[in-house]
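Take a look at the protein record below and tell me what you see:
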Amino acid sequence: MNLQYISDSKGKTTGVFIPINDWNELKSKYKDIESEDIDIPEWQKRLVLKRLENHKKNPDSALDFDSAMDDIENDL
């Protein structure tokens, strides 16, 4: 399998790219690999919608991913 790793600006691996042939092979081997039986609680949906609404009202208050991660790491 020829995987490609995706990294953020600090070199931390954040994802993996799987070539389509390898993905198709995994799908044939693991039949339920694409199933998404995820029940998202209503409270969580409401929270996301509220945050989205707040962001639309004040988009300049958002941090990009790297800045947010820096803030989190500085608080540790």
User: Anything to note?
Assistant: The chain is about 50% helix and 10% strand.
